[in-house]
Specification:
Blueprint (H helix, E strand, L loop, with lengths): L2 H10 L1 H16 L20 H13 L4 E7 L7 H15 L4 E5 L5 E5 L7 E5 L9 H12 L15 E8 L7 H16 L9 E4 H35 L2 H24 L11 H25 L4 H28 L7 H32 L16 H12 L1 H16 L20 H12 L4 E8 L9 H17 L3 E5 L1 H13 L8 H14 L16 E8 L4 H16 L4 E5 L1 H6 L1 H28 L5 H22 L5 H30 L4 H28 L7 H32 L9
Antiparallel strand pairs: 1-5, 1-6, 2-5, 3-4, 7-9, 7-10, 8-9
Helix pairs in contact: 1-10, 2-8, 2-11, 6-7, 7-8, 7-9, 7-23, 8-9, 8-11, 9-10, 9-11, 9-23, 10-11, 10-20, 10-22, 12-23, 13-24, 16-17, 20-21, 20-22, 21-22, 21-24, 22-23, 22-24, 23-24
């Protein structure tokens, strides 16, 4: 391809390029009015995901495990007319709320007891019907009774009787629709607003609140960070170029790019989520570099006395290959995320890879066309007369040559020390920890764990192996032994509940023994009597399957590291494997815990794929196997060093860090490419090593430093997010890019100084 002829074509049709690109962008951007956010748990899994299919099967049998939760605390104890009145009114209001299938609370708890007048009769009734009608003595008696009810203590009322929860179970498909989550959150807020006069502080939790937390934070980040990163870019570009043309041309390219890519996402039917909402910031960070390099070399040409068109040709000629390569490698870095099984990560990778290529196309077409139209006035500078070097570049080259061994040895020792930290890094994908502690959802979860029970739930489905098998005394006793063993093995397990509790309660009332009775028929009678006594909506069909073969055990668990979650879940299944029965852990906690494998796989597979793809591309371009380590090592080292620092500081790897790995390679390799392309260019022209190195620093050094500043500043913006994966992504990526530029401008040339033959010949 003849670059000059290509540029001449752009110059000739400059008005077409300058007008059509903005017009096409505006036309596509009109679709952004249909842009929507998605926060359902389902977005994290593909429709073919075995984890999602297992969860859907569980829900089809046992109903929805998702709920809208309302909690409050009364330091004097909740067994008083005011607190119980609040509980009753909230309970009744939730029963009237659309998409709510069942409500459990302290007032409508189905209390099983014997009739004082007829001891042989068992009564199942609401625990508290009319709080206002109870005397102080009766309230104290209710508190005493509640303290002995294992089915509710540590579930809907705390052991100290000061905190209570109203749990509204959702209808089967309610949690799948973000609009339903928004409606339920609003309904919950309206209900507690009516109770404001009580003076209680209410905490809302559950699936709808979690879904809306994802959506709210995503919307906040895209609305806040996009203009913020554009402002930072404007300030830095003005500082670098000190002229409006350089600032506006560079920003125009990235604005056109992310508007087009977002519009295409809308046209394809995608909704934004917490990761794809970051797309504009990513595009600004990765797309601005091409335009910067192009404008920087254009200014160099003009300062040498070139005319406008000659400077445009000079800049495109110098930048076309390196910007094409950097765009391809950046696209490869992001596209490698497509191997992830975490759907938001996959869609982010594909969208941003497309944006990287589009930014290159727009840079090559739009910037030269606008420069041809604007013809900025640039004064000729004597300092730019030299074709190969300036004083600073030459001093830098000579410093590297004098201290090359010391630089490499010092780097090796420092990197080894930092790298030791890798051994202490842990992976954690706990969903609750995705949110900073001041986020209302996180505050609610902390409140529940501190004052009431474990906020996470394991839904354990135990298979008896035969129809009606759950009524077997031996089976129920095994379930009872399991729950005791589970709580004894793991203190994080705060409460368990199942139909075994109901059977034991009936047997206690009827026979004075809170144990599983010996007869299968008696168990069946207890369950039938209990079921017939329940009001509509409180049935037990969510605790067993229709064939009464499988039993559901719900364990309330504290927030723990995902590794411990996985250990506990494996312990459950291993424990049951040693019995005649089998068990499987289900529920949303289980789903997100198993995302840890996806997080690890994303990190490892995307990095390996990015390294392989970039290495192959470089081999095809440079056709020199010896240069492959020069690409791999400087761009893998920043990842290893950042992970090492995380290990030393005790920071865990989460989804944000997993995403950063391949992106660091894709973006950091840009500096290496600019460096090596310029270096090879100088050596092919017969320059000595020193002259070639000075040439690199002159033409690429400042641009590399400036683009790294902009990239790091853009990614560091994510540290302001309340979504912790974004925070970790921003900090890790920005830190790695700073490390990468030091390696590229210090360690890489020192390495070249040792291995490049003929380096000692100097220029005058």
């Amino acid at each position: 391809m003849n670059i000059d002829r290509f540029v001449d074509g752009i110059i000739r049709f400059r008005w077409w390029a300058a007008l059509l690109i903005p017009l096409i962008t505006l036309a596509l951007a009109s679709q952004l009015r249909y842009l929507q956010f998605e926060g359902s748990y389902r977005i994290w899994f593909g429709e073919e995901s075995p984890i999602l299919k297992q969860y859907d099967t569980f829900r089809s049998v046992f109903g929805n495990d998702d709920a809208l939760l309302i909690m409050f605390r009364d330091e004097a104890g909740v067994f008083n007319p005011k607190a119980l009145g609040v509980v009753k009114r909230i309970t009744e209001a939730l029963w009237q709320t659309t998409d709510i299938a069942r409500v459990d609370s302290l007032t409508n708890y189905q209390y099983v007891h014997s009739d004082p007048e007829y001891p042989d009769d068992v009564i199942v009734e609401d625990f508290i019907d009319d709080p206002a009608a109870l005397s102080s003595a009766q309230l104290a008696d209710k508190a005493r009774i509640a303290a002995g009810e294992e089915m509710i203590v540590g579930r809907i009322v705390s052991a100290d009787m000061k905190t209570t929860m109203i749990a509204a179970r959702l209808t089967p498909k309610a949690g799948d629709d973000p609009e339903v989550s928004a409606r339920l959150k609003a309904a919950g807020e309206a209900i507690v607003a009516k109770e404001a006069a009580s003076g209680y502080t209410f905490h809302l939790g559950g699936g709808p609140i979690l879904n809306m937390a994802f959506i709210t934070l995503g919307e906040h980040d895209v609305k806040t960070f996009t203009p913020f990163v554009l402002l930072i870019a404007m300030v830095l570009l003005w500082f670098i170029f000190r002229r409006p043309s350089g600032m506006l041309l560079s920003l125009s390219v990235v604005i056109f790019t992310f508007l087009i890519v977002l519009a295409v996402q809308v046209l394809l039917g995608y909704r934004l989520n917490n990761f794809t909402a970051n797309l504009p910031v990513f595009v600004v960070a990765i797309g601005i570099a091409d335009a910067m390099h192009l404008f920087w070399i254009y200014l160099v040409g003009r300062r040498r006395g070139m005319g406008n068109h000659d400077a445009i040709r000079f800049s495109v000629r110098k930048n076309f290959l390196p910007t094409l390569l950097t765009s391809l490698t950046t696209a490869v870095g992001f596209a490698s995320l497509a191997v992830s099984h975490v759907i938001p990560v996959k869609t982010l990778g594909i969208a941003t890879a497309t944006a990287a290529l589009l930014a290159f196309v727009l840079t090559i077409l739009f910037v030269p066309a606008m420069l041809a139209i604007l013809n900025p006035k640039v004064a000729k500078s004597e300092a730019e007369e030299s074709e190969s070097h300036d004083a600073l570049s030459l001093r830098s080259a000579r410093f590297i040559m004098r201290h090359d061994r010391g630089i490499l040895l010092g780097s090796l020792l420092l990197f080894t020390l930092i790298g030791i930290g890798i051994a202490w890094v842990k992976v954690d994908s706990n969903t609750v920890r995705y949110f900073k502690e001041h986020v209302p959802f996180r505050e609610t979860v902390t409140f529940v764990q501190r004052n009431l029970t474990g906020p996470m739930a394991y839904e354990i489905v135990v298979d008896s192996g035969e129809k009606d098998g759950i009524k077997s005394p031996e089976f129920m006793r095994t379930v009872a032994r399991f729950t005791e063993a589970f709580k004894a093995q793991y203190p994080a397990v705060r409460h368990t509940t199942s139909l075994v509790d109901v059977v034991e309660k009936f047997n206690d009332v009827m026979d004075g023994s809170p144990t599983v009775p010996d007869g299968r028929n008696l168990i069946a009678q207890y369950l039938l009597l209990y079921s017939l006594s329940l009001p509509q909506g409180m049935e037990i069909n969510d605790r067993m399957d229709v064939n009464e073969r499988r039993l559901r055990v719900t364990a309330s668990v504290d927030i723990v590291d995902t590794s411990l979650d996985l250990e506990m879940m494996q312990w459950v299944e291993d424990w049951w494997a040693q019995t005649p029965y089998r068990a499987q852990v289900n529920g949303q906690t289980e789903m997100f815990a198993h995302m840890q494998h996806d997080v690890t796989d994303t990190l490892v597979e995307s990095i390996l794929l990015a390294i392989a793809a970039v290495s192959l591309m470089m081999m095809l371009i440079f056709r020199n196997l010896r240069m492959i380590p020069l690409f791999i090592i400087p761009n893998v080292l920043p990842i290893a060093l950042v992970v090492g620092v995380m290990g030393w500081l005790g920071i865990t790897i989460d989804l944000g860090v997993a995403v950063s790995g391949a992106i660091i390679i894709g973006v950091a390799v840009d500096d290496t490419i600019h460096f090596l392309v310029k270096y090879r260019e100088a050596r092919r022209e017969g320059e000595s090593f020193e002259a070639a190195l000075a040439y690199v620093y002159h033409y690429a050094g400042k641009a590399i430093v400036f683009t790294t500043l902009i990239l790091s500043a853009a990614f560091m913006i994510f540290a302001l997010s309340d979504f912790v994966p974004n925070v970790n992504f921003g900090i890790v990526t920005a830190s790695a890019l700073v490390i990468a530029v030091v390696i590229d401008l210090l360690m890489l040339p020192a390495w070249l100084s040792l291995v490049d033959s003929g380096k000692r010949s100097r220029i005058a």
